[in-house]
Write a structure and sequence with these properties.
The complex is a heterodimer of chains A (about 270) and B (about 750).
Chain A lengths: L1 E12 L3 E13 L3 E6 L6 H8 L7 E6 L2 E2 L4 H7 E4 L11 H11 L4 H14 L15 H13 L5 E5 L7 H16 L3 E6 L2 H7 L2 E6 L2 E6 L1 H8 L4 H21 L20
Parallel strand pairs in A: 3-8, 3-9, 6-7, 7-8
Antiparallel strand pairs in A: 1-2, 1-4, 4-5, 9-10
Helix pairs in contact in A: 3-4, 3-5
Chain B lengths: L2 H16 L2 H30 L3 E6 L11 E2 L2 E2 L6 H5 L1 E6 L6 H14 L4 E4 L4 H10 L13 E3 L5 H28 L20 H10 L2 H27 L1 H6 L5 H42 L12 H28 L3 H6 L1 H13 L10 H4 L4 H11 L3 H31 L1 H4 L8 H10 L7 H21 L6 H27 L3 H4 L10 H26 L4 H16 L2 H28 L5 H14 L4 H21 L3 H17 L4 H5 L2 H6 E3 L5 E3 L1 H20 L6 H12 L2 H7 L1
Parallel strand pairs in B: 1-4, 1-5
Antiparallel strand pairs in B: 2-3, 5-6, 7-8
Helix pairs in contact in B: 1-10, 2-10, 7-15, 8-10, 8-11, 8-13, 10-11, 10-16, 11-15, 11-16, 15-16, 19-20, 19-24, 20-24, 22-26, 22-27, 22-30, 24-25, 24-27, 25-26, 26-27
Classes of the chains: A alpha/beta (about 270), B mainly alpha (about 750).
C-alpha cells in the first residue's frame, strides 16, 4: 500500500543552515497493517507523513500510496488517504455535520452516499450528540473525533494518523486507539506516528524507530526485541537513540569508529516484509 | 480545475465569514453607522467652529480717519461689517502706541503664541494723515507712499489664520468704502473704480454638475473600501487558517491549490464588493441628506448647488467594482498567504496601501484626463475611466475601455498567479516564527549560501541598485562639460552598479561564474545572432520609444537637460562616447540585471516572470519614465536571449549594439542621407535636422528580427530545477490530470 524509498527532506533553517529532516528513509506498509513510526519530537515523523499526504514535496527519493506517486500524482494520492493531523484542527464556525459533509463533497461523494456514510460514521464514533455543535464549542476529544470522521468519510484504503492521541485524555485516547484497531481489521493500511511507547507496543503490527531523519530499526515488535536483546520497548528505543547520538558525536570529534555496544547488536537495515 | 470544488470552498468560506460577528460588524454594520455618525460630527464640529470667537487687537485706533468709520464704539462699524461678522470678533482697542511696526510685530508674535490674542492690526500713527494726503493727491503730486496698516498673524496657528481672514475681509471692505469716498470727493462717479461687473454663469445642467462633483469623490471611496474590504477577510482566510491549523487539513484534501485559491478569492471578492458597495450607499445617502440640510440652510445665506449623485453614476460604480475588487482581492490573498499569523498579516496592509494610494490619488491631480498614457496605469486608468463614465463622456469611455480593461485584467491575472504560487510554496505555507537576530541572519546568508542567489537576494539587489541610483542623482555633479560627464558615468557604472553586484555575488553565492552567466553560450552562433537581432530590432525600438514619448510627453525641463547631454556627446570623440555609453553599460548593467538578478529570480520557477521582473528593475534603473518603458522592452529581449543561451555574452553584445546604434544615429544629419541612396532607403528626415528609420525599413527589419527570435526559440532550452518543479505543479493542476484522479 505505502512504499517509501530513500526519501529525503531538508529545509533551509536560519539557525542550523540546511536542516535535514529525513535522511533517506525507506519502508513499506501493507493493507490490514498498522505501521508505527516511533520517534521523539523532531525525529522527522511529521515531515514523512506530510510528504505522504502530499502537503510537502520530498527533496529526493520516492513514495507511492496505493500505487500512486506522491510527487507526480498528488491528486490521486489525496483520494487514497485520510489524514488526521496532530493539532486536531477543525473549523470554529462549522458544526461537526457540516464539516464532515464539506470534506465528503470535496472528495466527490454523491449526496445520498455521503449522507449514508456520515450517518454510519457518526453512529460508529458516537458523534450524534455533537452533530450540530460548532467547532469552537468542542472539547479536544470531540475535535479529534470530527477529524477522524472527516478522514474516514470517503472510505480511503490508507489512513495516516500523525500523533493523533496528543493532548487527549486517557478515555478518549483509548477509544481512538480502538477505532484505529477496528479500521486495521477492516483491511485498511494505517500509518500511525507516535512518541508514546505503550501505544506503539499495543497497536502497531510493525514499527520503525525514527530519529534525526534516520530509521534506526524496523520490524515487528518480537523481531525488534529478538534483534536487540531487549524486552522493554522504551529501553530498546532509548538504547538505539543514545547509540546513534554517540556515533554522531564521535564522527564529529573525528574519532575512529568504535564497535557497537555489545548489548545492542545493531542492524538498521529493514528486515524485509 | 474543478468548478465544483471551487464552489464548495467558496460557499464554505462565505458561510464561515458570515458567522463571524466581527466580519459582519465591519462589513455591514459599520458602514451603515459610520457615515451618519460622521455627518453628525461634521455638523457638531461646524457648530463648534461657528461659535468660536476671534480675539483681535487693533493698535492705533486714534490714527483712523473720522470718516468713513472703521470702528464704532467697541465694534467694527455696521457699514463695514455685518452684525454676524462683528459677533465673531472680540476687539481689544488700543488708541495710541508709541511702538513702531517692528516692535508691534514682536509683541504680536509673543501674544499670539501665548494666546492673549489671535491677530493684531497695526495702524501707524500717521495713518489718517497719510490717507487724507492720498485723497488730496493727483497724478502730479502722488504721495511718497501709500498708508500701510498691517495685520500680524501666525500661520502656525489655525485660530490665528481664521482671525486674520475675518479681519482682513472687513478691512478690505472698508478700503472699498474709502475708495468710493475719495471718488465722491473728487466728483467722480463710484463706477470709476469698478467700470464693469463680471458675471459668471454656470451653463452645466444640474445632473452634469452633480455628476462632476461626485465623480471626483465616489471612485476614490469605492477603491479605498474595496481594498479594505478585501484585506481583512483575506488575512482571516489565509493567515488565520494557518494559525488555526485547518490549512493543512484542506491541503491534504482533493482540492487542488488553484481551486483553494479561486474559492478563497471569490469569497474575498464578495466581501470586498459588499464592503465597498455598502460604504458607497451609506456615504451617498448621508451625503445627500447633509446636502439637502445645507441647501435648506442656504435660504439663510449658505448657497450650495450640489444634489445627490445621479442614479446612473451608481450603476457605473457597481460595474467598475467587479474588476477593482478582483484586483485587490488577489493582491490581498497573495500577501495574506505570505503572513504567518493574522497579526503579521495586518502589518502588510500598510505597504499595500502605500503602493495603491498614489495610483488612486493620481487621477485627483488637477488637469488629469483620461488618455492612452493614463489608461495604461493600473488603478489610475480605471479610476479615470469610471470618472468619465459618471460624467457622461461615453465616447472617451469607449475609446479607452480596451486598454484600461486589458491592463486591469493583466494585473488581476498576475496577482492571482502570485497567490497560487504562494499556495504552492511550502516555505511560505509552513514558515515558522523565528526571533529576529541580525547577526544570525547575516551568518546564515554567508554560511548557507547556495550555488545561485535566491529570489529574495535578487529582489534586494534590484532594490539596492534603484536606491543607489536615486541618491546618486542628487549627489552627482551636473554634467556641464564632457570630462565631468565621463567621470560621473564611469563612477556610476563601475562603482555603483558593477561593484555592489560583484560583491553580492562573491558573498552570497558559491558559484559566481554560474550566477553571472560568464560561461560561453550553448551555441556560439547566438553571439552574432544577438548582435544582428539588436541591429534589426533597433528601428522598431526607436519607433516604440517615439510612441511612448507621444503618449507620455517628456517634461520640457528634462528634455532640455537631455538635449544638453546629447550636445556634449556629439561634440566628444566617437570612440570615447561608445566606450562610456555603450560598452560600459553593456557590461556593468548586464552583470547586474541579466547576471545576478535574473539568475536569482529564475529560482521562482517562472522563466517569463523572472525575465519580466528583471526587465522591470532594468527599466526603473533608467530613471526617466519614458526611457524606463522602452528599456523594459529591450530588457525583455535581452532577458530571453540570456535564458535561451545560458550566457551573458550574447546579451552584452545586444546591449552594446543597441546603445552604439542610438549614439551613431544621433550623429547622422538629415543632409547626410540626402546624397546616399542606401541611407535614403533606411532613414527619413525627422524634426530638428535629425533622422529616423523609415517605416518600410522598420517593418522589413522587424520581420527579419522575428525570424531570428524564432530561431532562438527553436534552440534547446535548459530548465532550472525550480522551473522543472513548477512545470510539474502546473501539470498537476491540469484539468485532465485532475479529472483522471476522480
Amino acid at each position: 500500500m505505502i512504499h517509501v524509498r530513500d526519501l529525503t527532506k531538508s529545509y533551509a533553517d536560519l539557525r542550523r543552515g540546511q536542516f535535514v529532516a529525513l535522511a533517506g528513509i525507506s519502508f513499506d506498509a501493507l493493507a490490514g497493517q498498522i505501521y508505527g513510526l516511533l520517534g521523539p519530537n523532531g525525529a522527522g515523523k511529521t515531515s514523512a507523513l506530510r510528504i505522504l499526504s502530499t502537503v510537502l514535496r520530498p527533496t529526493s527519493g520516492s513514495a507511492t500510496v496505493n500505487g500512486c506517486d506522491v510527487l507526480t500524482q498528488p491528486a490521486r494520492v489525496r483520494h487514497q488517504i485520510g489524514f488526521v493531523s496532530t493539532n486536531t484542527a477543525v473549523y470554529d464556525r462549522m458544526t461537526a455535520w457540516e464539516m464532515v459533509g464539506y470534506f465528503g463533497r470535496l472528495y466527490g461523494l454523491a449526496e445520498d452516499l455521503l449522507r449514508e456514510r456520515m450517518e454510519t460514521i457518526f453512529a460508529r464514533l458516537q458523534m450524534n450528540e455533537i452533530r450540530d455543535l460548532l467547532g469552537s464549542k468542542m472539547s479536544t476529544g470531540m475535535k479529534q473525533k470530527v477529524s477522524i470522521a472527516r478522514a474516514l468519510v470517503h472510505d480511503p484504503p490508507v489512513l495516516i494518523f500523525d500523533e493523533a492521541t496528543a493532548g487527549l485524555d486517557v478515555l478518549v485516547a483509548r477509544a481512538l486507539l480502538k477505532t484505529v484497531a477496528d479500521l486495521r481489521d477492516q483491511g485498511k493500511c494505517i500509518l500511525f506516528s507516535t512518541h508514546i511507547m505503550r501505544e506503539a507496543e499495543r497497536l502497531c503490527d510493525k514499527l520503525a524507530i525514527l530519529h534525526r531523519g534516520h530509521i534506526l530499526a524496523e520490524g515487528t515488535l518480537p523481531e525488534l526485541r529478538a534483534r536487540h536483546g531487549e524486552e522493554d520497548l522504551e529501553e530498546l528505543f532509548f538504547g538505539l537513540i543514545s547509540h546513534h547520538d554517540g556515533e554522531k558525536e564521535r564522527q564529529r570529534d573525528g574519532e575512529t569508529k568504535l564497535p557497537a555496544s555489545p548489548s545492542l547488536p545493531l542492524s538498521v537495515a529493514p528486515s524485509g516484509s | 480545475m474543478s468548478l465544483t470544488n471551487v464552489k464548495l470552498i467558496y460557499l464554505r468560506e462565505l458561510r464561515d465569514q458570515l458567522r463571524d460577528r466581527r466580519t459582519l460588524f465591519t462589513i455591514f454594520i459599520l458602514p451603515l453607522m459610520l457615515y451618519p455618525l460622521l455627518g453628525m460630527s461634521v455638523f457638531q464640529v461646524q457648530q463648534f467652529l461657528k461659535e468660536n470667537h476671534s480675539k483681535v487687537r487693533i493698535i492705533g485706533t486714534a490714527a483712523l480717519p473720522a470718516e468713513p468709520k472703521l470702528i464704532e464704539g467697541h465694534k467694527f462699524a455696521l457699514s463695514v461689517a455685518s452684525e454676524a461678522e462683528s459677533k465673531l470678533l472680540v476687539l481689544e482697542l488700543i488708541e495710541r502706541s508709541e511702538k513702531s511696526a517692528a516692535q508691534a510685530r514682536l509683541d504680536a508674535e509673543s501674544d499670539i503664541r501665548a494666546g492673549t490674542c489671535d491677530a493684531v492690526v497695526y495702524f501707524p500713527p500717521d495713518f489718517a494723515e497719510r490717507l487724507a494726503e492720498f485723497r488730496r493727491a493727483d497724478e502730479e503730486r502722488a504721495p511718497d507712499r501709500v498708508p500701510r496698516p498691517e495685520i500680524f498673524q501666525s500661520t502656525a496657528s489655525d485660530k490665528s489664520k481664521v482671525a486674520a481672514d475675518r479681519v482682513d475681509r472687513i478691512i478690505r471692505h472698508w478700503r472699498e468704502i474709502v475708495v468710493e469716498d475719495n471718488l465722491r470727493h473728487s466728483n467722480l462717479p463710484a463706477a470709476t473704480a469698478r467700470p464693469f461687473e463680471l458675471v459668471s454663469t454656470d451653463v452645466a445642467e444640474e445632473v452634469s454638475r452633480r455628476a462632476a462633483f461626485w465623480s471626483k469623490i465616489l471612485p476614490f471611496v469605492l477603491m479605498v473600501w474595496a481594498l479594505t474590504g478585501a484585506f481583512y477577510p483575506a488575512i482571516d482566510l489565509c493567515a488565520g487558517e494557518k494559525e488555526r491549523g485547518t490549512l493543512e487539513t484542506l491541503l491534504s484534501s482533493p482540492a487542488a491549490r488553484s481551486e483553494i485559491v479561486w474559492g478563497k478569492l471569490l469569497t474575498v471578492m464578495t466581501f470586498s464588493m459588499a464592503t465597498s458597495l455598502l460604504n458607497l450607499l451609506s456615504m451617498t445617502a448621508t451625503g445627500t441628506f447633509i446636502i439637502v440640510q445645507i441647501q435648506k440652510m442656504g435660504a439663510h445665506g449658505v448657497p450650495l448647488e450640489i444634489g445627490p449623485p445621479p442614479l446612473l453614476a451608481l450603476v457605473w460604480l457597481i460595474l467598475a467594482l467587479v474588476p477593482i475588487a478582483a484586483l485587490f482581492s488577489a493582491l490581498s490573498l497573495a500577501v495574506a498567504a505570505f503572513a504567518r499569523s493574522s497579526k503579521e498579516g495586518q502589518y502588510y496592509l500598510m505597504p499595500l496601501l502605500m503602493i495603491s494610494l498614489p495610483l488612486m490619488m493620481l487621477p485627483m491631480l488637477p488637469n488629469t484626463q483620461l488618455d492612452l498614457g493614463f489608461s495604461l496605469i493600473p488603478l489610475s486608468g480605471l479610476m479615470l475611466l469610471l470618472r468619465s463614465a459618471i460624467e457622461g463622456q461615453y465616447w472617451e469611455v469607449l475609446k479607452f475601455s480596451v486598454p484600461v480593461i486589458g491592463m486591469t485584467a493583466a494585473c488581476c491575472l498576475l496577482a492571482i498567479r502570485w497567490a497560487i504560487d504562494q499556495f504552492n510554496n511550502e516555505s511560505v505555507l509552513f514558515r515558522e516564527s523565528e526571533r529576529l537576530d541580525l547577526g544570525l541572519w547575516l551568518r546564515h546568508l554567508v554560511r548557507d549560501r547556495e550555488d545561485l542567489p535566491t529570489a529574495g537576494e535578487a529582489v534586494f539587489c534590484g532594490v539596492l541598485l534603484l536606491v543607489i541610483k536615486f541618491f546618486a542623482g542628487f549627489v552627482a555633479p551636473p554634467p556641464n562639460d564632457w570630462n565631468t560627464f565621463v567621470v560621473t558615468t564611469a563612477v556610476f557604472q563601475l562603482a555603483l552598479i558593477a561593484t555592489p553586484v560583484l560583491l553580492m555575488t562573491i558573498m552570497l553565492t558559491r558559484r559566481p561564474a554560474k550566477t553571472l552567466l560568464l560561461g560561453r553560450p550553448s551555441f556560439l552562433t547566438t553571439l552574432p545572432a544577438a548582435a544582428l537581432l539588436a541591429l534589426l530590432l533597433h528601428p522598431a525600438m526607436l519607433w516604440l520609444s517615439q510612441l511612448i514619448q507621444n503618449l507620455y510627453p517628456v517634461h520640457p525641463q528634462v528634455l532640455s537637460q537631455l538635449k544638453e547631454l546629447e550636445t556634449l556627446a556629439r561634440a566628444a570623440p566617437l570612440w570615447q562616447v561608445l566606450l562610456l555609453m555603450a560598452l560600459a553599460p553593456a557590461i556593468c548593467e548586464e552583470l547586474a540585471f541579466r547576471g545576478f538578478i535574473l539568475s536569482g529570480l529564475r529560482r521562482m520557477g517562472h522563466k517569463w516572470g523572472a525575465i519580466a521582473l528583471t526587465s522591470l528593475f532594468f527599466g526603473l534603473a533608467h530613471g526617466i519614465l519614458q526611457q524606463s518603458l522602452s528599456a523594459f522592452v529591450v530588457g525583455m529581449v535581452i532577458g530571453y536571449i540570456a535564458v535561451k543561451t545560458g550566457s551573458l555574452w550574447p546579451g552584452v553584445l545586444y546591449h552594446l549594439v543597441h546603445n552604439s546604434l542610438g549614439i551613431s544615429l544621433g550623429r547622422i544629419s538629415a543632409e547626410a542621407i540626402g546624397g546616399n541612396d542606401l541611407l535614403r532607403l533606411i532613414f527619413v528626415p525627422a524634426k530638428d535636422g535629425e533622422v529616423m528609420y523609415g517605416v518600410p525599413a522598420t517593418i522589413v527589419a522587424a520581420l527579419l528580427a522575428a525570424g531570428i527570435l524564432w530561431w532562438l526559440k527553436s534552440l534547446p532550452y535548459h530548465h532550472t530545477a525550480e522551473e522543472r518543479l513548477q512545470e510539474a505543479l502546473d501539470h498537476q493542476s491540469d484539468p485532465l490530470v485532475a479529472n483522471a484522479a476522480v
